[in-house]
Amino acid sequence: MRARDASGVARRLRERGAAKVPALLRERAFRTYWTGQTVSLVGDQISLLALPLVAVLVLGADAAEMGWLKTVELLPALLLSLSAGAWADGRAHRKRIMIVADLVRAALVLSLPVAYACDALTLGQLYAVAFGIGACTVVFDVCNATVLVALLPVRQYVAGNALVNGARSMAWLGGPGLGGLLVRRSPRRWHWWPTR
Question: Which of 6, 118, 179, 189 has the most CB atoms at less than 10 Å from its CB?
Answer without folding.
Answer: 179
